[in-house]
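Regression report. Comparing outputs from two consecutive submissions.

Submission 1:
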Amino acid sequence: MTTTAAKDPAQYPALRNLQFSPIKEGEEQYIVLWDPTGLSKERLVLPLNYFFIIQHFDGEHSLQQVGALYLKRFGEFLMPDKVQQLVADLDQKLFLEGERAEEARRQQSARYRESPLRPAAFAGRSYEADGAKLKKQIDGFFTSKEGPDFKPSENAGKPIKGLVAPTYDLKQAGPVYAWAYKQLQEAVQPDVYIVIGTAYAGLGNLFAVTDKDFETPLGVVKADRPLLEKIRERFPIAFEEDLCHQAEHAIEFQLPFLQDIVGGKKHFTIVPVLCSFSALSVSEPAVLQQVVAFLDGLLEILKADGRSYCVIAAGELAHLGMRYGDKEPPTDFSFHRSMQHDLEMLKPVEELKADEFANYIIKEQDQRRISGFAPIFSLLRLIEAEKGEVLRYDRGITDQYNSTVTFASMAFF
């Protein structure tokens, strides 16, 4: 029996799962890198030739091989001292896999598990950090000209079953959130909210549940301990990655609305769930079986509990442009074509047809990168409603190259 010697990470560096975006300064183009998991708080701006280098930091290419590829691509030698300094800088910033990143993960995990709650990670950045100012900000979303109108919903007074809400920056998309939460404001409100969000940094498993209470500038939102204990008994693997909740924003962005609309009237609890699977992945029987097993099990737990609940699916729709892998920025024509596809895609969601929703994206080969597929698919498997409705649709521009994210608000009764 032969064994393969481990490769020296100093000679075979492996970049962690980072996010990046193109930026422009004058006539020069650069790439900015950051860590979506929050393990590293650093950002790194690289010229395009250095970005070419780190794209080959996959743990399989040696520095010597990277140098040969660089010579072939740019027609010049890559000086060893420069690439070694780049490796050292990346390691210092915790951008590389290895002992430093592993130790940082252990320390981060220990701090999170020792904490009695999950602190607000985006207060002061994506929304107001002061409670009074936050309430005023939320009120402004409802009264904005882009916000919901004042006439009562046709579903006012009915038990609400589910919402789809954005996860885009609240300062920009707040009025679109308000379209969804106005429906909750006027509905018969349940005591329990299953808040299912996109795990933008990805997961090793398909779902990640945490039993932490969530803190916001408006106070503490309590996790539903009885339900979470039942989920842990049945799906212990779902709690293995609860640390990912620390840096993800999808659930956090929903909570100030729940506190403002429901919290002033009654006590409520949440079940916080992050998920990470695509429509293409559930076309594989093994993946679909795992997804359905968790969701069917969760539905059994909710039914056995007996309390009314509302499922909130927090996620975005299409991702267009260079930031997301397209070769060119989106044009007005390509955006409007994508908008048409989004609204067609949401028709089976309105009709509560989870499989047709998945099949629409699969037919497109997920070329528009529908990041909210997992929470919306989960919602459709968990609620028992008569109908859904798209309330509002919009987009956000995420960089200087007009990279675009689309999102919508929906309600289910």
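Submission 2:
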Amino acid sequence: MRWSGSAPSRPRRSRDSRATRTAAEAQASAPSHPAVSFPAVSSPAVLSPAVAGRRVDVLKTGADRPQARETALWMLERIPTTALESIQPKDVTPEERLATQAIGIAVLGEIGATPDDVRLAIDLSKAKNPDEGINSQVSPVFEGAIERMLRRRPSLYSDVGLVIAKTTPTIQASLIAAIGATCCRDASQCLARLLGRWPAIDRLLIQQIGRRSGKAPIVLSPTDVAALRHFLESRETTLRREAALAVGRFEDPEAVGALIDLLGDPDRGVQENAHWALRQITGLRFHLDPKRWRGWHDQERAWWTTAAPGLIEMLDSENPVPTAGAIRELSLRRLFRNEVTDKLVPLLAARNRKVSKIAFAAVENLESERAIPALIDLLGDSDGSVQADALHALCRITGESHPPRAPTGKPSW
């Protein structure tokens, strides 16, 4: 967060040094904003709803009052660490205890940025009986706080992934939901890399991976995609159903054969998810007819072994006419889009600009992530029209209409 000139400078402090700062000192040196006033913290070891509640309320409702929000954050950051760590007092009503838990978690969601903050949020979220895991009434606050910390500090994805194995099932579910809620490349990669390590959470992981909304610029490694594909053959109906959704979301062409088999699954939900995935991957609109899909699949594989080699050979022709025709024909075969893209990438930089433009259009149509590195390199081409074609193709493949800019001036896909 950027701080206005009215706020005092904030040198970096360790948690220990923050804990030694008294509440009176923090209150005395707080920026002066007449719109907001807070009671002083009477003891660094106690944090009650009356003390911090209004500050948290300002964080939630002060979007149109930046000075009030700034003041609230500034005050919350100076609540001693010992206060947060002892936020679960024993001699209070259950309602007060839940309120203090929620406040502590909300504070960490706004200022937390370290693995210790994640672990502290987990401790604060636990029910009175540790075996019960997370308290259901603070679960939404907890998931929101973890999500904000992950967005603020992406390096925490690996730390949260390691913590998942050491917590109770209810906390695992909340952590996985928080990771999935960020809907970004790091989130999907983190979830995919946890698959198969602890079978008890595989269903939750696949569910979050498969239910991402929108098309994000996410590229999973072949190992991660293969791990997802493996669950299409699971004995558990839920895993097959969620896995079909996930491989469809990532448009994995190697899953087509297994998805066609699932069209005859005993579970209707598995059938429907497999059908949706097949349409997503192939671009075809066949009905839920296993025979029709299998016939098409057999024809495509036969084409790849008989006709495709000759078309690929034409790509090296010095005559642009057969080369262009071969590119167009190959671009229609989405089942083999990764292999075809590998063959077309060299033509993106062809001397003949007509051939190059047809190759760019084909790569866009195939939408294979394998083209991304070459397209990024072409953003630095001396020809402005090549740069424009490369950028257009990248936007189509990644789904980003306004790609983020890297320090080099190129989009940071």
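Expected: both submissions complete independently.
Actual: both completed, but the second showed a warning that disappeared on reload.
Relevant detail on submission 2: DSSP finds 23 helices and no strands in the chain.
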